[in-house]
Amino acid sequence: MERNSATLRGRGAGINPTSRFERLTVLSEEAPASRVATEYLADTSRSVIARNNSPDIPFDASLNPYRGCEHGCAYCYARPSHEYLGMSAGIDFESRILVKEDAPELLRRELASPRWTPQVLALSGVTDAYQPVEEKLGLTRRCLEVLVEARNPVVIVTKSARVTRDIDLLAELAMHRAAAVCLSTTTLDGDLARRLEPRASHPRRRLAAVEKLTAAGIPCSVLMSPLIPALTDHEIPALLQAAKDAGAVSASYLILRLPGAVAPLFEDWLTRNVPDRREKVLNRIRALRGGRLNDPRFGMRFRGQGPFADQIRTLFHTTRKRLGLDRSGPKLSTQSFRKPVIDQLPLFDF
Q1: How far apart are CA 62 and CA 37, in angstroms?
Q2: Beta bridge mates, 220
Q3: N or C: lower Cβ tally within 10 Å for the chain?
């Protein structure tokens, strides 16, 4: 159902556009609610490891215990994935969360399979594994327990300081060069972050998480993602300095991309939150994307092109080098991998 645009408490999206796969659109004349409760649905997928073949993404396999993300980031590139489930990329994406309740068991089975080749798994490749419901369900922690048993390397990308809860498991993996964490940090401006990423951790807490992880011997980097032209790009020097001060070993960035339904959602967010900067942000995005709001070509999706892209790249790389954050991320190892045990039923019951 289409909703009228509104600023909803704790939500990044203000609209709930009909999925592009739906042929029927129902228009509501009801006044929009001020709050939308989160609904959790069972995900009965029979596999928990997803594959990708994009040259823009530095991993081949990812693990996602949840589909949809309550963090509600207005710009999230994963929003259109909800349309394949018959739901909206808007409010549905952040309020109707699919939960893979048997994710740890499925992971154990896949890692124990003769077909599994030990390799780095990305945790949160699509939606954040440390979103609020993880506090109650602990699915991500249970998956990490399986990875510790198997000593299979994992890279975690998250916007949540909740990752520090699992320092014990990550430190154990790090002893085998099998763990790294990347804290995605869009801005240092707490008020902007609250509106842009309403249920993600405050930027200060993310940087504090970097300190805690680093102190525990877990390699940690900071990802400025997405870097939003004409809105957050001026923060590059300050954000990199903060990453350095927190103990990050490296830093990188990804320029905002607006695939499919994300473009109108983000335009609506700009209208509601920074109307005076709306056109400047959109025009700068178009300048980076060959006149469009999205460029789906491999190699261009996260970097952009043109003079503004060059300016961003030069500023980021120069500052990063000056601060000593231009090192490559840690090279994780599969040498300690061992197949996890699968419980067997006894042949005879005495």
Answers
A1: 29
A2: 181
A3: C
What's the token pair of residue 213? Answer: 């992880």
The candidate with the shortest Cα–Cα distance to 174, out of 216, 237, 235, is 216
pLDDT the model gives residue 58: 67
Q: pTM for the complete prediction?
A: 0.90
Q: Are strands 96-99 and 39-42 parallel, antiparallel or unpaired?
A: parallel
- Separation of alpha carbons 246 and 40, rounded Å: 35
Extract the tokens encoding 218. 């877990």
What is the rounded distance in angstroms from the CA atom of residue 241 to the CA atom of residue 218? 20
- Asked if pLDDT for residue 2 goes beyond 80, the answer is no
Q: What's the whole-number mean pLDDT along residues 242-270?
A: 97
Residue 153 tokens, joined: 């390397």
Instruction: Name 190's Cβ contacts closer than 8 Å, sequence gap at least 6.
Output: 202, 203, 204
Burial class from Cβ neighbours inside 10 Å (0-12, 13-18, 19+) for residue 295 reads buried
Asked whether 182 and 59 are in contact (CB, 8 A), the reply is: no
